[in-house]
Amino acid sequence: MASTLEALKRWVDDVAAMTRPANIHWCDGSDAENHALIQQMLADGTLIELNQQTHPGCYLHRSHPGDVARVEHLTFVCHRNREDAGPNNHWMDPAEAHAKMDALFNGCMEGRTLYVIPYCMGPIDSPLSRCGVEITDSPYVVANMRIMTRMGAAAQARIEREGSFVKGLHSTGELDPERRFIMHFPEERMIQSYGSGYGGNALLGKKCHALRIASHQARDEGWLAEHMLIVGIENPQGDTHYIAAAFPSACGKTNLAMLIPPEAYHKAGWKVWTVGDDICWMRPGPDGRLYAINPEAGFFGVAPGTSTATNSNALKSIARDTIFTNVAVTADNQPWWEGLPGTPVTDWQGRPYDPANGPAAHPNSRFTVSAKQCPTWSPKAEDAQGVPISAIVFGGRRPSLLPLVMEASDWTHGVLMGAAMGSETTAAATGAVGVLRRDSMAMKPFCGYHYGDYFQHWLSFDRPGAKLPRIFHVNWFRKNKDGKFLWPGFGENLRVLEWMIARVEGKARGVETPIGTLPASGELKLDGLHFNQLTLAELLAVDQAGWQDELAAIGEYLDSFAPRMPAALHAEQQRVALALGTPEREAATA
Ligand code: OXD
Ligand code: MN
User: Fold this and answer.
1) Which residues, listed in sequence order, are joined to residue 387 by a DSSP beta bridge?
2) What average pLDDT is seen over the chain?
3) CATH, range 226-268+284-291+379-581
């Protein structure tokens, strides 16, 4: 049988025959290789040096102005059977997708270097980790993948040992949005991406591999690949509970992962440990608990809004050895974005800053930085066995109805909470206030197969011997009638996490309601917060009529995944609806 290395070389040869690069470079991940690439990118303008006194090792990349974000309408999941992709994905027949991509890749690397990037998602020696190889013609992608994954010789050695890897082929092409596709072939464990250099479209280890392909692989292999942060909360006695939390984009995952405890908590000895800010892979361990790793090695964080007040840990992390993309710069060449003190002189497109042109930094401008630079980086983040998860948290941006926190009555109820989660749009974002977008488990753009099958997979973890995490739902974004947030958020969210941990440890009674268990009076510690009891009552109220409507809407949403919607989830929706006093309705499941 041919060795994996031979199979890999054959694939590289086949890709080179199609794309016709001038050179081929196998990445070893070394400092020397990185240094040479950075010099080359500085010379050709791909990178711009930032102030090396204030920001040593930091560089700026300005993308094509039309290539600044993920492109969901151009992202396809190409299962052989259309139904397997589900209504939650764009689908294309694999043969058609391959033909389209082959035509685009044909000769696309002429005059360019083809880089072969072997990478490992997760600690290099962890049984939970999985490997891939990305072929790209972008040195910017190589430099980012080196930060975001364990990349190079060690990953290649694991691939050779293990005999399997996800194949990713990427070319920036002409950066023409008309010639841009992000294709996934879950059954072939393959990704093909053309026409974009943006992180989520081009750093194939992240969303494409670690979520879309991995979610499908995880279902086959009995684990979960989730869009979740992982954070460790250490109490003053020195016990640490690990919490995994899923929120849609722009709901503060990075801030929660790097939470700064309020002063009184800090003084009392509470500590917060960051394990991951975006992706969580978890699977049952021998003791029945779920163990999680962060498959990434770095943070690809949104820069605007990151400040000493909102996330001083992130700010400290990016003071050196960071790649900034599409931020503005100050007169003394420091990176700048909205939320930082100081003034920009050059905007993200390299123009003299003029407020008439919009924000100085692109709203989706990013920093790429090694997780090791985070002051709260958990020593357990490198643990091959992963960390045991005590609680799973779902949440969204819900200006009304959803309480600050509630706990599911059991795993099935928790899966229903995750399936039902979503965010309401604001006038600023869309012009239409209060439009609720459901985003089950925050995986709508990332689940590589039918949501109905995915919910069934989640439900399957509840089996004899399992010691599953408790499931909670939070809402940091409740507003009063004047449109003001009711809850201060940020570091104060630790108060809510403390209640969850008390529940996990059997130290908080809570109050059972039809929608879940809420904190009993006095259980949420609010000392030092100047918090009005009426506000707390509003944050924890259960509006029965509002919830009856919500359950009906959840029922309709779940029906959209029929006939693959698990009957158990439909039954759970009915159970909660009945508990709220709503009459029974017809099942739409098969
Ligand atoms: C996202 C991200 O879009 O993490 O969710 O970049
Ligand atoms: Mn994300």
Assistant:
1) 292
2) 95
3) 3.90.228.20
In the chain, where the domains are located: 6-48+67-222, 226-268+284-291+379-581
Helix axes 94-105 and 4-19, enclosed angle (nearest 10) = 60
* 414 Cβ inside 6 Å of ligand 1: no
| Closest to 170 in 3D by CA, of 365, 19, 24, 354 | 19
Average pLDDT over residues 229-243: 97
500-520 pLDDT tens trace: 999 999 999 999 999 999 999
The fold of 6-48+67-222 is Phosphoenolpyruvate Carboxykinase; domain 1 (3.40.449)
Residues 304 and 302: their CA atoms lie apart, in Å, by 6
Measured CA to CA in angstroms, residue 480 lies from 395, 398, 437, 477, 519 at distances of: 19, 12, 21, 10, 20
| Cβ–Cβ under 8 Å, residues 124 and 143 | no
Q: Is 278 in the pocket of ligand 1 (CB under 6 A)?
A: yes
What is the distance between the terminal CA atoms of the chain, rounded to a whole angstrom? 45
Q: What pLDDT digit, counting tens, does each position of 128-143 carry?
A: 999 999 999 999 999 9
- H/E element, 380: none
**Residue of 208, 249, 446 with the most ligand 1 atoms within 8 Å of its CB, for mutation:** 249
pTM tops 0.90? yes
User: Is a pLDDT exceeding 80 seen at residue 532?
Assistant: yes
Query: What's the pLDDT tens digit per position in 546-576?
Result: 999 999 999 999 999 999 999 999 999 999 9
Question: What is the CB neighbour count within 10 angstroms for residue 43?
Answer: 9
